[in-house]
Amino acid sequence: MGSAEIDSIDLVPCEVSLPGDNLRILQPSDGAELPDDGPVEWAPLVPYWAVLWRSGVALARELAVARVDGLRVVELGCGLAVPSLVAARGGAEVLATDGDPEALPLVERNARDNGLDLATAEVDWDAADELVERGPFDLVLASDVLYERAGVGQLLSLLPRLGHEVWLADPGRPAAGAFVEQAERRWSVSADARDAIGIYRLRIS
Length: 205
Ligand SMILES: C[S@@+](CC[C@H](N)C(=O)[O-])C[C@H]1O[C@@H](n2cnc3c(N)ncnc32)[C@H](O)[C@@H]1O
Fold this sequence. Notes:
By secondary structure, the protein is of the alpha/beta class. It has a single domain, classed as Rossmann fold, CATH 3.40.50. 32% of the residues lie in helices and 25% in strands. The chain has helices at 3-6, 29-32, 54-64, 82-89, 104-113, 129-134, 150-162, 174-183, and strands at 11-16, 23-28, 72-76, 93-98, 119-122, 139-143, 165-170, 188-194, 197-203. Helix 3 (54-64) packs parallel to helix 4 (82-89). The chain binds S-adenosylmethionine.
């Protein structure tokens, strides 16, 4: 979807409440009408990238109070990319990626509208050699990306190739539990919670 096609989507403004300054973005109205406030198995009919998921907001709130200035940051499965936008606002050099190319023009528009500099790329976790070549990154971000079992193996393989520190937010999906259990064999994992969302920090020292 190019910028011309973005113009054909009905977009609505949305204010994301954050520590410090809130963030104003546009999102597809179809996604806005389906807020992610139900059980964790709830699935929208619109594309997943078009919904403002609670995990993305929680991760963005973590980033809003972190020091990210000057860090090279990549986000996987970014969707509306609120964590990427907040990292860019904090002075990080950010690459927001998603396997669905339709997500990316709106990320770029929201960055522009907020006066933020950020790059985007279409990246599927199963075919990420070009992304690995752009690394290593100081920090890898991912929120609500473990809703299918297939993602567990894909991310366990990819993440160590991208960097040594990962922040992952998840609302408690079963695949995320399996992911964390296996990640602990290789990474040091600390678990926290923000707004009832699990925040996992993975490090390889
Ligand atoms: C539930 S949404 C979460 C979006 C965003 N991270 C958030 O928290 O608002 C999952 C996102 O992961 C992306 N995704 C799913 N499988 C993927 C894959 N194999 N490679 C890359 N992106 C993928 C989807 O396109 C979607 O944007």
